[in-house]
Amino acid sequence: MIYANEFLKEFGMSGGQLPFFMNIIEHPGITQEELSEIIKIDKSTTARAIKNLLKNGFVTKEVDKNDRRSYKLYPTQKALEVKEIVLKNARKWDKILLSGFSKDEENFIRKGLETMVNNALEYLNTKEKGYEK
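Predicted structure:
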């Protein structure tokens, strides 16, 4: 997050807004509710992130023709241009983090992280969350 916050600062964005930003680019026309579900973040946090992305010209908001109470979110041209900078810096960060590892070790780490993400998503999507007390 520290790395992301540094290069995003000049665009008026923070690392915390990055998942919202990237998902809107990847899913043009997504609703705030769908965004909250994908990212696994509460609706009020999503609303705050969207408000900032709107204010800084990264997103446009249009009334959903099928549900007038809902809004669809679309990336702006500015967002598409900044996306390239984000991806460039993400690749740089990957390179920094993985320096000193062999290709086999890199593949093992990536596969392990992918498995961990899938495990987390599977758990979060279950109705029975067994939180410890």
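Summary: Helices lie at 2-8, 18-26, 32-39, 43-55, 77-97, 103-124.
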